[in-house]
Amino acid sequence: MEKRPKILVVDDEEMNLVLMEAMLAPLGYEVLTAKDGEGALAKVARENPDLILLDVMMPRLDGFTICRMLKDDETTRFIPVIMVTALDQLEDRVRGLNAGADDFLSKPFNELELTTRVRSLLRVKHLNDQLRYAHQHINYITRHVEGLLGSFDPLQFKLETARKELLQQLLGLKERAPEAVLVATVSGPESWEGWLYRRQGGTIHSEAVAFALPEDSPAGELLLRAGREGVFGNREDEKGEAVFTFVKTSLPAGPGPWYNYAGYYHHPFLVVAFNYPAGVTAYELDVLRNLLTYSQFLQLVGGQIREKEEAFHYTIKALARAAEANDEDTGNHITRVGIFARELARDLGCAENFCREIALAAQMHDVGKVHIHPDILRKPDRLTPAEWRIMQQHTIYGARILGDALHLKMAREVALHHHEKWDGSGYPAGLKGEEISLAGRIVALADIYDALRNKRSYKPAFSHEEACQIIIIGDGRVRPEHFDPAVLATFQRVASHLEEIYEILKD
């Protein structure tokens, strides 16, 4: 709801305070009073008035000194000051102007002159405040986007997270910030999808929304047709009721009250902000226009990243399947190992980004087998020592294939480390303990579990219970000391879940 303008009257004579309050209060102003300079400064700090009527001749701190202190302070310099004085010499007026006074009122004053000057300066302050706040809001949003670009990581970029952070910059502002913002895009004929962001207390809440908004509806005519140039309305505008009715009936925003909105539409984006604390003007539209531009930018970046990510995933999986073309394993083996690794990582408490990445990286664990001759990969008998040395090279080949690209770092670690063992008895480097990457330690167990469950030319398929017993107790070839104890404990906790996954994806 809009607040009444606050006017602070400062005078050491009680009669003048009573007289000015009697003239101003009936006009809807909230009148504050102070009898000296110290009291005036305290009330300014506490109440943040919209205008100050300041007597010049007062004990201790005179009006000139107080005015200069206010104008030198960044937090109060924009409050207009009318100096009320019986001094009529030119040098006194010049002194007041040098102190920063915005206007003068001579004693004795009449009511018409007082109210006219007050209205005029409040109007100017209101416009200056709007301009200043719009400039600040645009700067806040711009700096946030600049920060986003400065630390941009395409592997970690999440469109909704970036958009929510951007909206927090607008909704979290201390002054003239709306309570709610709708950001939506066209999803079909007259259909829209998007997010509604609301400030509740000190927290920004977001909720996915879907709604119909025909262009020929009352709200559509305002937001979509007029909204191409920007549209705003305040609680007293009849047209605004169409927008507020749309909010109440089509969005999970509650019954309100809803007031003071600004909207901007640029196909396919619609941005509407509600419940500004004061009347909305063209300045708020400038802020929304910038917000919409940045939203379009984020959407474009997000779309391009998704396309590249999908192409990257397709290429990775195609390469992984090509590596297994001459092996006994099937494509489901690499899929299962990826899912097993992800579930183990989640139970270990790894970050969700790590869990998503290892699900893909694990599928590359045997990519180096493209360099191993099919006769060795498909040999039904035990490999000779020379053949075994060649087979062990697939870990090194895999690391070379994946190279040093940042987005393949984990996949490279997995390819190189998934046959290393916690006790140092693995290959190719005989690493032990935490010398082995965490991803490599996780995938090592995931790969062993899936290998035990599948039939090979040299071994039968084991049941889930048999595979667990071999991993946890050992069978001569596989021993529990081969595995990171923390990963092994995690395996025991989620083993039944891995069995369910295997049954769904088994060959």
UniProtKB/TrEMBL annotation:
<keyword id="KW-0902">Two-component regulatory system</keyword>
<feature type="domain" description="HD-GYP">
    <location>
        <begin position="308"/>
        <end position="507"/>
    </location>
</feature>
<dbReference type="GO" id="GO:0004673">
    <property type="term" value="F:protein histidine kinase activity"/>
</dbReference>
<keyword id="KW-0067">ATP-binding</keyword>
<dbReference type="Pfam" id="PF13487">
    <property type="entry name" value="HD_5"/>
</dbReference>
<dbReference type="GO" id="GO:0005524">
    <property type="term" value="F:ATP binding"/>
</dbReference>
<dbReference type="InterPro" id="IPR001789">
    <property type="entry name" value="Sig_transdc_resp-reg_receiver"/>
</dbReference>
<dbReference type="InterPro" id="IPR037522">
    <property type="entry name" value="HD_GYP_dom"/>
</dbReference>
<keyword id="KW-0547">Nucleotide-binding</keyword>
<keyword id="KW-0418">Kinase</keyword>
<comment type="function">
    <text>May play the central regulatory role in sporulation. It may be an element of the effector pathway responsible for the activation of sporulation genes in response to nutritional stress. Spo0A may act in concert with spo0H (a sigma factor) to control the expression of some genes that are critical to the sporulation process.</text>
</comment>
<protein>
    <recommendedName>
        <fullName>Stage 0 sporulation protein A homolog</fullName>
        <ecNumber>2.7.13.3</ecNumber>
    </recommendedName>
</protein>
<feature type="modified residue" description="4-aspartylphosphate">
    <location>
        <position position="55"/>
    </location>
</feature>
<dbReference type="InterPro" id="IPR052020">
    <property type="entry name" value="Cyclic_di-GMP/3'3'-cGAMP_PDE"/>
</dbReference>
<dbReference type="InterPro" id="IPR003607">
    <property type="entry name" value="HD/PDEase_dom"/>
</dbReference>
<keyword id="KW-0808">Transferase</keyword>
<dbReference type="GO" id="GO:0000160">
    <property type="term" value="P:phosphorelay signal transduction system"/>
</dbReference>
<feature type="domain" description="Response regulatory">
    <location>
        <begin position="6"/>
        <end position="122"/>
    </location>
</feature>
<dbReference type="Pfam" id="PF00072">
    <property type="entry name" value="Response_reg"/>
</dbReference>
<dbReference type="InterPro" id="IPR011006">
    <property type="entry name" value="CheY-like_superfamily"/>
</dbReference>
<keyword id="KW-0597">Phosphoprotein</keyword>
